[in-house]
């Protein structure tokens, strides 16, 4: 087995084992806490105008996915496949505008990866209300988008910057807001008071 594949499999096994062992307060910390409603990102509003069928009401609301080895394997496959298939590029480079959310073809910005991963998982039978577009500030304070997957073992993050899936609480991002799990076009503020290396991040 190539070293890079072996290393990835080891990280995957450790991540799965760690997540499945959570209970009590550790499990509670693995779930994002919300502060109430907030405005949707302007890019998301534009995306919904272009793709109204993808922004309708949930058929099943506020669901979480039962995390098993097969479901985590599926998440890993989708995350790695799309990360490899789409070349990172800014909206200005692709569309000539500062902000546009869209499904990527060959190139895409961070939110475009998120939208494609979300659509792919929904097409594979995952509940839309467990797959939430999420806005964060990254390690240098820049805006970034990731996909939150709500599971019975905590909120997992799919990110175009890494092929490794982690609990939200194990990432070095400051979490700002995410889609509501009850109303698809509503957004919730996230309470993020973790002691991580985000002290210098611009709010």
UniProtKB/TrEMBL annotation:
Pfam families hit by this protein: Peptidase_C93 (PF06035)
What highest taxon heads this organism's lineage? Bacteria
Q: Where is the signal peptide?
A: 1-28
- Gene3D superfamilies the UniProt entry points to: 3.10.620.30
The alphabetized UniProt keywords are:
Signal
Q: Is the keyword Signal assigned to this protein?
A: yes
PANTHER family noted in UniProt: BLR5470 PROTEIN, PTHR39327
Under what name is this protein listed? Transglutaminase
Organism expressing this protein natively: Hartmannibacter diazotrophicus
């Amino acid at each position: 087995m190539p070293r890079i594949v072996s290393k990835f499999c080891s990280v995957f096994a450790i991540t799965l084992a760690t997540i499945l062992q959570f209970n009590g307060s550790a499990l509670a910390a693995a779930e994002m806490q919300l502060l109430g409603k907030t405005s949707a990102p302007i890019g998301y509003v534009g995306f919904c105008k272009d793709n109204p069928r993808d922004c309708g009401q949930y058929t099943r609301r506020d669901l979480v996915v039962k995390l098993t080895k097969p479901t985590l394997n599926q998440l890993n496959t989708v995350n790695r496949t799309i990360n490899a298939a789409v070349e990172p590029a800014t909206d200005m480079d692709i569309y000539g505008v500062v902000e546009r959310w869209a499904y990527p073809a060959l190139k895409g910005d961070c939110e475009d990866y998120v939208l494609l991963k979300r659509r792919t998982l929904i097409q594979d039978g995952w509940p839309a209300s467990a797959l939430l577009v999420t806005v964060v500030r990254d390690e240098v304070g820049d805006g970034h988008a990731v996909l939150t997957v709500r599971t019975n073992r905590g909120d997992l993050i799919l990110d175009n910057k890494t092929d490794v899936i982690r609990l939200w609480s194990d990432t070095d991002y400051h979490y700002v807001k995410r889609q509501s799990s009850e109303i698809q076009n509503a957004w919730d503020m996230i309470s993020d008071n973790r002691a991580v290396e985000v002290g210098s991040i611009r709010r």
